[in-house]
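During the reporting period the student researcher (J.K.) took over the structure-prediction task from the postdoctoral fellow and processed the backlog of single-chain submissions. One of the processed entries is reproduced below for the supervisory committee.
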Amino acid sequence: MDMNTLYKNLTPPKGVVDCVLDTDTYNEIDDQFALAYMLKCPEKMNVKAIYAAPFFNNRSSSPCDGMQRSYDEILKVLHFMHREDMIPNVFKGSENYLPDEKTPVISDAAKHLASLAMGYTPEKPLYVVAIGAITNVASALILNPEISDRIVVVWLGGHSFEKENTGEFNMVQDIAAARVVWNMAEFLVQLPCAGVVEHFSISAPELREYLLGKGDLCTYLAQNTLDYMERFSDRCWTKPIWDLTAPAWLMNENSKYMDQRIIYRRLPNYDKQYNYSEGHKLMAYIEAIHRDNLMTDMVAKLTN
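J.K. obtained the following structure tokens:
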């Protein structure tokens, strides 16, 4: 791999770039913010497709059900944005997690990404913003290894290296998929959850002041978050909307919204630990979020 190309693709891009979003949208309340933000930033992101990712927790009955609920939630957000033109570019993803590191889960999303990425090159890659279990992306790589240097994977997953384990929701759902992406993708950006992007959070007063009543989209995002949090908390709270930080990386010229460093990859293992032996490929690792700068930009974009 040419080092100039490597470092260029591990640095936030200049100008408008083509990208896709892989999202478990119904899992929580923050994917909706990320989806809306991406579509509200046409000066940087030309969104070519949106993929529904699987998830399984108390908001779904199975990974397949989680993927279907996420697909429906994507359509709901597009409706609130009056962006029904994007519906033909929304694809259902994996109905289950990878059975092992060599077997893909066939889905419309994986097949679309495996084909779409062939139109790009290491010099002009497709940016894959992933904010859920990374099954769809791993499956596309297994289906078509030729895309490994044609995409830049920007994934919100795992915890910071300072935490005692990698037991973060996006990662532990499908560790096999994370390991496939770590091993196969030539260009990888990791946004760790606990310890880093958890600091991008919003409070109830901010939701009411800046978003509630500011149009259909903003009202839905604000009320959805308020309803979600008020079921669990009877005290003062802030809610991480961490998923928005992944597309924000593409906006991060001059480190306005976050700090990063280029490091050797630390491979996630099945015991919820990272492999600390160096020698893997390089990646970009986000180590700090400039919360107020990014929050100001998010509010401006969403209320525009």
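The committee noted the following: The first helix runs from residue 3 to 9.
J.K. will present the remaining backlog at the next meeting.
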